[in-house]
Amino acid sequence: MAGLVFTYLARRKARAAATALGIALGVATIVALLSVGSGLKRTAAELVHLGQADLGIFQSGVSDPTASVLSASLAPRLEKRSDVAEATPLLLVIEGVKQEPAAVVFGAEPNGFFRRRLVVSEGRGGPGGRTGILVGDKLAHELKLGPGSTLKVKKRPFTVTGIYHSGVFFEDTGAILDLDTAQRLEHRGNDVTTVAVQLAPEVRHSTAEKALKRALPGAQILGTADDAERAGANGQLVRNVVTIIAALALIVGGLGVTNTMAMAVLERRRELALLSAMGWQRLRIAILVLAEGVAVSLVGAGLGLLLGVVGAGLLNDALSVSAVVTPHVTPWTIGQGLLIGVAIGVLGGLYPAWRGTRGSAVELLGGT
Q1: The pTM of the whole model exceeds 0.70
Q2: Type and span of the H or E element at 342
Q3: For residue 119, how far is the Cα from the chain centroid?
Protein backbone atom coordinates (compact mmCIF):
# COMPACT_ATOMS: atom_id res chain seq x y z
CA MET A 1 0.00 0.00 0.00
CA ALA A 2 2.87 2.37 0.78
CA GLY A 3 4.10 1.97 -2.79
CA LEU A 4 0.70 3.00 -4.17
CA VAL A 5 0.66 6.08 -1.91
CA PHE A 6 4.06 7.29 -3.09
CA THR A 7 3.19 6.47 -6.71
CA TYR A 8 0.13 8.74 -6.45
CA LEU A 9 2.18 11.59 -4.99
CA ALA A 10 4.80 11.23 -7.72
CA ARG A 11 2.14 11.26 -10.46
CA ARG A 12 0.54 14.46 -9.18
CA LYS A 13 3.54 16.41 -7.93
CA ALA A 14 2.25 19.92 -8.58
CA ARG A 15 -1.11 19.40 -6.89
CA ALA A 16 0.40 17.56 -3.92
CA ALA A 17 3.13 20.20 -3.55
CA ALA A 18 0.62 23.08 -3.56
CA THR A 19 -1.47 21.36 -0.89
CA ALA A 20 1.59 20.54 1.22
CA LEU A 21 2.81 24.15 0.97
CA GLY A 22 -0.50 25.48 2.25
CA ILE A 23 -0.36 23.09 5.21
CA ALA A 24 3.29 24.02 5.82
CA LEU A 25 2.44 27.72 6.16
CA GLY A 26 -0.25 26.97 8.73
CA VAL A 27 1.99 24.65 10.75
CA ALA A 28 4.92 27.09 10.53
CA THR A 29 2.80 29.91 11.94
CA ILE A 30 1.67 27.71 14.82
CA VAL A 31 5.22 26.55 15.63
CA ALA A 32 6.58 30.11 15.48
CA LEU A 33 3.90 31.44 17.83
CA LEU A 34 4.27 28.52 20.23
CA SER A 35 8.04 29.08 20.32
CA VAL A 36 7.64 32.79 21.07
CA GLY A 37 5.00 31.92 23.67
CA SER A 38 7.40 29.48 25.33
CA GLY A 39 10.05 32.20 25.30
CA LEU A 40 7.59 34.56 26.97
CA LYS A 41 7.03 31.99 29.69
CA ARG A 42 10.77 31.72 30.32
CA THR A 43 11.00 35.52 30.47
CA ALA A 44 8.13 35.51 32.95
CA ALA A 45 10.10 33.07 35.13
CA GLU A 46 13.09 35.42 35.04
CA LEU A 47 10.84 38.35 35.97
CA VAL A 48 9.78 36.44 39.10
CA HIS A 49 13.34 35.46 40.03
CA LEU A 50 15.18 38.73 39.40
CA GLY A 51 18.51 38.59 41.19
CA GLN A 52 17.87 34.85 41.72
CA ALA A 53 15.12 35.75 44.19
CA ASP A 54 12.73 33.12 45.52
CA LEU A 55 9.63 35.31 45.16
CA GLY A 56 8.58 38.52 43.47
CA ILE A 57 5.97 40.81 45.02
CA PHE A 58 3.91 42.96 42.64
CA GLN A 59 0.83 45.15 42.78
CA SER A 60 -2.40 43.21 42.56
CA GLY A 61 -4.89 43.80 39.76
CA VAL A 62 -2.53 45.20 37.09
CA SER A 63 -2.72 43.91 33.51
CA ASP A 64 1.08 43.56 33.30
CA PRO A 65 3.48 42.98 36.24
CA THR A 66 5.86 45.63 34.83
CA ALA A 67 3.12 48.23 35.44
CA SER A 68 3.04 47.42 39.16
CA VAL A 69 3.41 50.23 41.71
CA LEU A 70 4.51 49.48 45.29
CA SER A 71 6.11 51.48 48.07
CA ALA A 72 9.83 50.88 48.61
CA SER A 73 9.11 50.88 52.35
CA LEU A 74 7.63 47.40 51.88
CA ALA A 75 11.14 45.90 51.69
CA PRO A 76 12.28 46.73 55.26
CA ARG A 77 8.89 45.59 56.57
CA LEU A 78 9.36 42.22 54.88
CA GLU A 79 12.88 41.80 56.28
CA LYS A 80 11.42 41.87 59.81
CA ARG A 81 9.60 38.61 59.08
CA SER A 82 11.16 35.37 60.26
CA ASP A 83 10.54 33.63 56.91
CA VAL A 84 12.33 36.34 54.88
CA ALA A 85 16.14 36.58 54.76
CA GLU A 86 16.41 39.62 52.49
CA ALA A 87 14.14 41.87 50.43
CA THR A 88 15.26 44.42 47.88
CA PRO A 89 13.05 46.91 46.00
CA LEU A 90 13.39 47.22 42.21
CA LEU A 91 12.07 49.80 39.78
CA LEU A 92 11.73 48.67 36.15
CA VAL A 93 12.19 51.42 33.56
CA ILE A 94 10.49 50.23 30.37
CA GLU A 95 11.39 51.51 26.88
CA GLY A 96 14.04 53.77 28.34
CA VAL A 97 16.82 52.96 25.85
CA LYS A 98 16.01 54.40 22.44
CA GLN A 99 18.46 52.16 20.54
CA GLU A 100 16.95 49.02 22.10
CA PRO A 101 13.37 49.78 23.28
CA ALA A 102 12.83 46.25 24.63
CA ALA A 103 15.78 46.53 27.03
CA VAL A 104 14.78 47.02 30.68
CA VAL A 105 16.67 49.40 32.96
CA PHE A 106 16.55 48.33 36.61
CA GLY A 107 16.64 50.75 39.49
CA ALA A 108 18.24 48.83 42.37
CA GLU A 109 19.79 49.63 45.74
CA PRO A 110 23.61 49.37 45.52
CA ASN A 111 23.77 47.10 48.60
CA GLY A 112 20.79 44.87 47.77
CA PHE A 113 21.29 41.21 46.85
CA PHE A 114 20.14 41.95 43.28
CA ARG A 115 23.37 43.87 42.67
CA ARG A 116 25.64 41.90 44.98
CA ARG A 117 25.14 38.79 42.86
CA LEU A 118 26.28 40.42 39.64
CA VAL A 119 29.62 39.42 38.14
CA VAL A 120 31.32 42.59 36.92
CA SER A 121 33.59 41.72 33.98
CA GLU A 122 34.73 45.24 33.12
CA GLY A 123 34.98 48.47 35.12
CA ARG A 124 33.53 48.63 38.63
CA GLY A 125 30.22 47.54 40.09
CA GLY A 126 29.72 49.86 43.05
CA PRO A 127 27.20 52.70 43.38
CA GLY A 128 26.85 54.71 40.20
CA GLY A 129 25.54 57.91 41.76
CA ARG A 130 23.39 60.24 39.71
CA THR A 131 25.34 59.84 36.48
CA GLY A 132 26.66 56.26 36.46
CA ILE A 133 25.05 53.13 34.99
CA LEU A 134 25.92 49.43 34.83
CA VAL A 135 25.21 47.67 31.52
CA GLY A 136 24.55 43.98 30.92
CA ASP A 137 27.11 42.24 28.71
CA LYS A 138 24.55 41.33 26.03
CA LEU A 139 23.27 44.91 25.75
CA ALA A 140 26.85 46.21 25.83
CA HIS A 141 27.77 43.90 22.96
CA GLU A 142 24.67 44.93 20.99
CA LEU A 143 25.29 48.68 21.42
CA LYS A 144 29.12 48.42 21.47
CA LEU A 145 29.45 49.94 24.94
CA GLY A 146 32.27 49.76 27.46
CA PRO A 147 33.37 51.54 30.65
CA GLY A 148 33.43 55.28 29.95
CA SER A 149 30.85 55.07 27.15
CA THR A 150 27.63 57.04 27.28
CA LEU A 151 24.17 55.46 27.32
CA LYS A 152 21.03 57.57 27.23
CA VAL A 153 18.04 56.49 29.32
CA LYS A 154 14.86 58.49 28.77
CA LYS A 155 17.03 60.95 26.79
CA ARG A 156 19.28 61.56 29.80
CA PRO A 157 22.98 60.63 29.37
CA PHE A 158 24.67 58.25 31.81
CA THR A 159 28.30 57.14 31.94
CA VAL A 160 28.89 53.39 31.82
CA THR A 161 30.84 52.50 34.97
CA GLY A 162 30.89 48.75 34.47
CA ILE A 163 29.77 45.75 32.41
CA TYR A 164 28.11 42.90 34.28
CA HIS A 165 26.87 39.36 33.73
CA SER A 166 24.16 37.69 35.82
CA GLY A 167 23.31 34.63 33.74
CA VAL A 168 19.70 35.82 33.46
CA PHE A 169 18.85 36.83 29.88
CA PHE A 170 16.31 39.40 31.04
CA GLU A 171 18.98 41.15 33.16
CA ASP A 172 21.97 40.74 30.83
CA THR A 173 20.09 42.50 28.02
CA GLY A 174 19.34 45.47 30.31
CA ALA A 175 21.12 48.00 32.51
CA ILE A 176 21.10 49.07 36.17
CA LEU A 177 20.83 52.48 37.83
CA ASP A 178 20.89 53.32 41.51
CA LEU A 179 17.31 53.11 42.80
CA ASP A 180 17.01 56.77 43.81
CA THR A 181 18.34 57.85 40.41
CA ALA A 182 15.78 55.69 38.60
CA GLN A 183 13.00 57.01 40.82
CA ARG A 184 13.90 60.61 39.96
CA LEU A 185 14.15 59.71 36.29
CA GLU A 186 10.66 58.20 36.33
CA HIS A 187 9.21 60.78 38.76
CA ARG A 188 8.09 57.92 40.99
CA GLY A 189 8.90 59.35 44.44
CA ASN A 190 9.43 56.37 46.75
CA ASP A 191 7.56 53.95 44.48
CA VAL A 192 9.02 50.79 42.96
CA THR A 193 7.77 48.11 40.59
CA THR A 194 8.50 45.01 42.65
CA VAL A 195 10.20 43.74 45.76
CA ALA A 196 12.46 40.72 45.24
CA VAL A 197 12.41 38.38 48.23
CA GLN A 198 15.01 35.87 49.37
CA LEU A 199 13.48 33.38 51.80
CA ALA A 200 15.17 32.33 55.02
CA PRO A 201 16.99 28.97 55.01
CA GLU A 202 14.82 25.88 55.51
CA VAL A 203 11.61 27.83 54.89
CA ARG A 204 9.31 25.99 52.50
CA HIS A 205 8.51 27.99 49.38
CA SER A 206 4.80 27.16 49.34
CA THR A 207 4.38 27.91 53.05
CA ALA A 208 6.05 31.30 52.78
CA GLU A 209 4.04 32.19 49.69
CA LYS A 210 0.76 31.45 51.46
CA ALA A 211 1.80 33.41 54.54
CA LEU A 212 2.81 36.44 52.48
CA LYS A 213 -0.47 36.36 50.57
CA ARG A 214 -2.34 36.55 53.88
CA ALA A 215 -0.10 39.33 55.20
CA LEU A 216 -0.20 41.44 52.00
CA PRO A 217 -3.81 41.41 50.70
CA GLY A 218 -3.16 44.26 48.22
CA ALA A 219 -0.23 42.53 46.53
CA GLN A 220 0.24 39.47 44.37
CA ILE A 221 3.01 37.01 45.18
CA LEU A 222 4.63 35.48 42.11
CA GLY A 223 6.73 32.42 42.74
CA THR A 224 6.63 30.52 39.44
CA ALA A 225 6.58 31.20 35.71
CA ASP A 226 2.94 30.11 35.62
CA ASP A 227 2.09 32.72 38.26
CA ALA A 228 3.72 35.48 36.22
CA GLU A 229 2.14 34.28 32.98
CA ARG A 230 -1.32 34.34 34.56
CA ALA A 231 -0.68 37.80 36.02
CA GLY A 232 0.12 39.32 32.61
CA ALA A 233 -1.83 39.46 29.38
CA ASN A 234 0.96 38.53 26.93
CA GLY A 235 1.05 34.78 27.58
CA GLN A 236 -2.74 34.47 27.39
CA LEU A 237 -2.79 36.54 24.19
CA VAL A 238 -0.26 34.26 22.51
CA ARG A 239 -2.20 31.16 23.57
CA ASN A 240 -5.44 32.60 22.19
CA VAL A 241 -3.79 33.52 18.89
CA VAL A 242 -2.29 30.02 18.60
CA THR A 243 -5.71 28.45 19.22
CA ILE A 244 -7.32 30.61 16.53
CA ILE A 245 -4.59 29.91 13.99
CA ALA A 246 -4.66 26.18 14.78
CA ALA A 247 -8.41 26.14 14.13
CA LEU A 248 -7.95 28.07 10.87
CA ALA A 249 -5.12 25.73 9.82
CA LEU A 250 -7.33 22.71 10.45
CA ILE A 251 -10.21 24.23 8.46
CA VAL A 252 -8.22 25.67 5.55
CA GLY A 253 -5.73 22.78 5.42
CA GLY A 254 -8.52 20.22 5.75
CA LEU A 255 -10.44 21.82 2.89
CA GLY A 256 -7.28 21.85 0.77
CA VAL A 257 -6.63 18.15 1.38
CA THR A 258 -10.31 17.35 0.82
CA ASN A 259 -10.29 19.19 -2.52
CA THR A 260 -7.04 17.58 -3.66
CA MET A 261 -8.03 14.07 -2.66
CA ALA A 262 -11.62 14.39 -3.94
CA MET A 263 -10.30 15.40 -7.37
CA ALA A 264 -7.86 12.52 -7.25
CA VAL A 265 -10.65 10.08 -6.42
CA LEU A 266 -12.74 11.31 -9.36
CA GLU A 267 -9.77 10.91 -11.70
CA ARG A 268 -9.00 7.43 -10.36
CA ARG A 269 -12.49 5.97 -10.10
CA ARG A 270 -11.70 3.23 -12.60
CA GLU A 271 -8.38 2.52 -10.91
CA LEU A 272 -10.08 2.18 -7.52
CA ALA A 273 -12.84 0.07 -9.08
CA LEU A 274 -10.18 -2.22 -10.53
CA LEU A 275 -8.71 -2.68 -7.07
CA SER A 276 -12.18 -3.51 -5.83
CA ALA A 277 -12.65 -6.02 -8.62
CA MET A 278 -9.30 -7.59 -7.69
CA GLY A 279 -10.66 -8.30 -4.22
CA TRP A 280 -9.76 -5.21 -2.25
CA GLN A 281 -12.34 -4.53 0.45
CA ARG A 282 -13.93 -1.10 0.68
CA LEU A 283 -12.23 -0.44 4.01
CA ARG A 284 -8.83 -1.12 2.46
CA ILE A 285 -9.56 1.27 -0.42
CA ALA A 286 -10.71 3.93 2.06
CA ILE A 287 -7.51 3.48 4.07
CA LEU A 288 -5.46 3.90 0.86
CA VAL A 289 -7.14 7.23 0.03
CA LEU A 290 -6.86 8.38 3.65
CA ALA A 291 -3.18 7.43 3.78
CA GLU A 292 -2.52 9.53 0.69
CA GLY A 293 -4.08 12.56 2.39
CA VAL A 294 -2.07 11.98 5.57
CA ALA A 295 1.14 11.57 3.53
CA VAL A 296 0.60 14.95 1.85
CA SER A 297 -0.11 16.52 5.25
CA LEU A 298 2.99 15.02 6.84
CA VAL A 299 5.16 16.40 4.04
CA GLY A 300 3.58 19.80 4.64
CA ALA A 301 3.97 19.50 8.42
CA GLY A 302 7.64 18.56 8.09
CA LEU A 303 8.30 21.58 5.90
CA GLY A 304 6.22 23.70 8.27
CA LEU A 305 8.33 22.67 11.27
CA LEU A 306 11.50 23.85 9.52
CA LEU A 307 9.88 27.11 8.46
CA GLY A 308 8.44 27.59 11.95
CA VAL A 309 11.81 27.26 13.70
CA VAL A 310 13.32 29.85 11.35
CA GLY A 311 10.19 32.00 11.43
CA ALA A 312 10.17 32.14 15.24
CA GLY A 313 13.32 34.26 15.21
CA LEU A 314 11.97 36.48 12.44
CA LEU A 315 8.69 36.91 14.33
CA ASN A 316 10.63 37.80 17.47
CA ASP A 317 12.53 40.51 15.57
CA ALA A 318 9.35 41.79 13.91
CA LEU A 319 7.70 42.20 17.33
CA SER A 320 10.83 44.02 18.62
CA VAL A 321 11.08 41.77 21.68
CA SER A 322 14.39 40.06 20.88
CA ALA A 323 16.06 41.89 23.75
CA VAL A 324 13.91 40.19 26.38
CA VAL A 325 12.45 37.10 24.70
CA THR A 326 14.29 34.23 23.01
CA PRO A 327 12.10 31.78 21.04
CA HIS A 328 12.13 28.39 22.73
CA VAL A 329 11.37 25.39 20.51
CA THR A 330 10.43 22.46 22.73
CA PRO A 331 9.67 18.82 21.86
CA TRP A 332 6.02 19.53 22.68
CA THR A 333 6.05 22.42 20.18
CA ILE A 334 7.34 20.04 17.49
CA GLY A 335 4.79 17.44 18.57
CA GLN A 336 1.91 19.91 18.32
CA GLY A 337 2.97 20.88 14.81
CA LEU A 338 3.03 17.22 13.74
CA LEU A 339 -0.33 16.56 15.41
CA ILE A 340 -1.88 19.46 13.49
CA GLY A 341 -0.44 18.05 10.24
CA VAL A 342 -1.80 14.55 10.88
CA ALA A 343 -5.18 15.96 11.95
CA ILE A 344 -5.41 17.95 8.73
CA GLY A 345 -4.69 14.82 6.68
CA VAL A 346 -7.23 12.71 8.54
CA LEU A 347 -10.01 15.33 8.48
CA GLY A 348 -9.33 16.24 4.88
CA GLY A 349 -9.19 12.62 3.73
CA LEU A 350 -12.40 11.35 5.33
CA TYR A 351 -14.82 12.47 2.62
CA PRO A 352 -12.62 11.43 -0.34
CA ALA A 353 -12.03 8.07 1.37
CA TRP A 354 -15.79 7.56 1.70
CA ARG A 355 -16.34 8.75 -1.87
CA GLY A 356 -13.71 6.35 -3.15
CA THR A 357 -15.69 3.36 -1.88
CA ARG A 358 -18.98 4.37 -3.51
CA GLY A 359 -20.21 2.93 -6.76
CA SER A 360 -20.24 -0.49 -8.31
CA ALA A 361 -16.98 -1.86 -9.65
CA VAL A 362 -18.88 -3.40 -12.60
CA GLU A 363 -20.42 -0.01 -13.53
CA LEU A 364 -17.11 1.86 -13.26
CA LEU A 365 -15.31 -0.71 -15.39
CA GLY A 366 -17.91 -0.45 -18.12
CA GLY A 367 -20.05 -3.46 -17.24
CA THR A 368 -23.87 -3.61 -17.19
Answers
A1: no
A2: helix 331-356
A3: 28
